[in-house]
Design goal:
The protein is built from 1 helix and 4 strands, in the order αββββ. The protein is mainly beta. Strands 1, 2, 3 and 4 form a 4-stranded antiparallel sheet that branches. The relative contact order is 0.24.
């Protein structure tokens, strides 16, 4: 919820671009203990989550995230965006 509040604040103060916007999708996996976190099973001996982020690149080098999703570490980026 905090992410979307900050995103709304950024978009209110960001001027509309004159050129096309560029969106880049990136993800970061995080390894977790399989004993403590059973639901995000990744490998036989490892659990993990992945944070998928879509970033918006605008004129003047401005970059900010526009979407953020969480999944198991084995999920691919393209199923989220």
């Amino acid at each position: 919820e905090m992410f979307f509040q900050l995103l709304g604040h950024i978009e209110q103060h960001q001027p509309k671009p004159f050129h096309k916007e560029l969106y880049i999708i990136d993800s970061t996996p995080f390894s977790l203990s399989q004993l403590a976190y059973k639901w995000p099973k990744f490998r036989p001996t490892q659990s993990g989550i992945k944070v998928h982020m879509m970033r918006r690149h605008m004129d003047k080098g401005d970059v900010y995230p526009v979407k953020l999703k969480q999944s198991t570490a084995s999920a691919h980026d393209k199923i989220f965006f």
